[in-house]
Amino acid sequence: MAAALPPGSTIGILGGGQLGRMLALAAAELGFKCHIYCPDQESPAFDVAAERTVADYADEAALSDFAARVDVVTYEFENIDVRAIELLQENVPVRPASLPLAVSQDRLSEKEFLRDLGIGTAQFAPVEDAESLRLALAAIGTPSILKTRRFGYDGKGQAVLKSATAPELALEAVGHAPAILEAFVPFAREISVVAVRAPDGDFAHYEAAENVHRNGILHTSTVPAAVHPGTAAEAGRIARTIVEELDYVGVIGIEFFVLGEGEGERLLVNEFAPRVHNSGHWTQDACAVSQFENHIRAIAGWPLGPTSRHSDATMTNIIGVEAHHWLQLAAEPGARLHLYGKREARPGRKMGHVNRVARPKGA
Ligand code: AMP
């Protein structure tokens, strides 16, 4: 087993959003310090971390200074230039490494990677211009979704194509950026699996959660998911295949579409994120060891913690002005409130989440 980082070591985190904040909180519980690197002066993670660097991800001098001051580096969001990771990797271990980031931040390479592993995805085709969109539409048809290859999140950089949609409008909607056309999947439900892998290959995953999106943003994640046990087990096997192929270290979030019902269910992977995942926030209050702690354990070379669940749970995101109801939510029995310390409740902004936990039925 790789040498374990002792308590008192410093974990460097690229990105200062809520995921960085919750990683830093979990790290503190194990005796680590965190150093957050983020270009935004007002990053939610700064409030709970020992050290900060406010600099651009392309600032090589700031990156090498950061590398010299931390014992391991991780990242909490995937729109970081792979060059920054490669530069850091020369001086300090970066976990997960640059490969999972490179594969997952481009929707085309992500889909090709999954296809090469024999893992089902929506039918897809690359689109660069009007001609390639015409060819893609001839192969895939409508309804379909045009998605930018890079820098899309929470439904941004996407356009739905119906039979009457003028292809030119869809290209405009994604800013004529390199894109992929994806067949619209008539899914019965959406699930995700949060999995974790240690440097020595030890693997564990949390139970599949069922996700509901609103306006392209995750609304709720619920465990148990209403899927056949065989489907849930298959999702875990797919997660393992992906992380082993990437020689992955840390927590990963994998989103699936479920087609059909009961024994006839079939899984397609929508996408994966090389980081802790919003659909895994329920693990904070329904498991002995959360996804955040397990990510810190994995990147620090510690033994993985248990991923089993002691409670049923529904995680609900608190978006924009919903955060004004904090007092009501704090008073609700059985609800655990997590707020991110963001000052401005802009529309669509993730301000916090609430985990509603209950004893499992029949327990
Ligand atoms: P994404 O940004 O790819 O995670 O998409 C956000 C959400 O949009 C997904 O969780 C689905 O609810 C929906 N969506 C994305 N791609 C498809 C698809 N090919 N077919 C149907 N729904 C989709």
Can you describe what's shown?
This protein is an alpha+beta fold. It is built from eleven helices and 17 strands. Strands 9, 10, 11, 12, 13, 14, 15, 16 and 17 form a nine-stranded antiparallel β-sheet that branches. A four-stranded parallel β-sheet has the order 3-2-1-4, with helices on both faces. A four-stranded antiparallel β-sheet has the order 5-8-6-7, sandwiched between helices. Strand 1, helix 1 and strand 2 form a beta-alpha-beta unit. Helix 1 (18-29) packs across helix 10. The mean pLDDT is 96. Bound molecules: adenosine monophosphate. Adenosine monophosphate (AMP) binds next to strand 14.
Short description:
The chain is an alpha+beta fold and 363 residues long. The protein contains eleven helices and 17 strands. Bound molecules: adenosine monophosphate.
Major beta sheet, specifics? 9 strands, antiparallel
What is the residue-averaged pLDDT?
Answer: 96
Number of separate strands = 17
Helix run count = 11
Q: Tell me the strand percentage band.
A: 25-35%
Instruction: Indicate the percent of residues in helices.
Output: 25-40%
Helix/strand structural class: alpha+beta
Oligomeric assembly: single chain
N-end to C-end Cα span:
38 Å
Low-confidence blocks of residues: none
Q: Give the helices and strands as they follow along the chain.
A: EHEEHEHHHEHEEHEEEEEHEEHHEHEE
Please give the radius of gyration in angstroms.
20 Å
What are the bound molecules? adenosine monophosphate
Globular, elongated, flat, extended or rod-shaped: what is the shape? globular
